[in-house]
């Protein structure tokens, strides 16, 4: 319900209605994952993580090993549009270089 402010002098005595600020939920975030396969070279995965996710070599190597051992690894968490763009970039880059590496996203 709007808050009612007292009338100001000279405004004819009409109350001023102030609308309560709307609470806006933050936009959903999406986790971007790399999926393991048996054909993509580990070095290529490290390059992808450095190129598209701005990881240094050590961090990229850790994520690559997680992908290798656990079947998938987190590349980052982003708003929908940025996550979609990263997935498309990685999948396109992998296809151009003839690797089956797959990148997917899911709501965080």
General description of the model:
- With 108 residues, the chain is α+β, with helices and mostly antiparallel strands.
- The protein has 3 helices and 5 strands; from the N terminus they run βββααβαβ.
- Strands 4-3-5 form a 3-stranded antiparallel β-sheet. The chain has a two-stranded antiparallel ribbon with strand order 1-2.
- α1 packs across α2.
- The radius of gyration is 24 Å and the shape is rod-shaped.
- The model has no long low-confidence stretch (mean pLDDT 91).
Features:
single chain; 108 residues; alpha+beta; three-stranded antiparallel sheet; two-stranded antiparallel sheet; 3 helices; 5 strands; 40% helix; rod-shaped
Q: Categorize the overall geometry.
A: rod-shaped
Mean pLDDT: 91
Ends distance: 34 Å
| Order of secondary-structure elements | EEEHHEHE
Strand content: 25-35%
- Helical proportion, percent range: 25-40%
Total count of strands: 5
- Spatially, the strands of the biggest sheet line up as 4-3-5
Number of contiguous helices: 3
Based on CA atoms alone, the radius of gyration comes out at 24 Å
The secondary structure category is alpha+beta
In short:
With 108 residues, the chain is an alpha+beta fold.
Which helices and strands appear, and what pairs or packs with what?
Layout: E1 3-5, E2 16-18, E3 29-35, H1 42-53, H2 57-70, E4 72-79, H3 80-96, E5 102-107
Antiparallel strand pairs: 1-2, 3-4, 3-5
């Amino acid at each position: 319900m709007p808050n009612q402010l007292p009338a100001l002098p000279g405004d004819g005595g009409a109350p001023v209605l102030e609308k309560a600020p709307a609470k806006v939920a933050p936009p959903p975030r999406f986790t971007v994952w790399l999926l393991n396969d048996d054909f993509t070279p580990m070095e290529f995965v490290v390059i992808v993580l450095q190129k598209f996710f701005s990881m240094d070599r050590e961090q990229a190597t850790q994520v690559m090993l997680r992908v290798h051992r656990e079947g998938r690894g987190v590349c980052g968490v982003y708003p929908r549009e940025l996550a979609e763009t990263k997935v498309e970039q990685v999948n396109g880059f992998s296809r151009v270089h003839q690797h089956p590496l797959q990148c997917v996203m899911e709501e965080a």
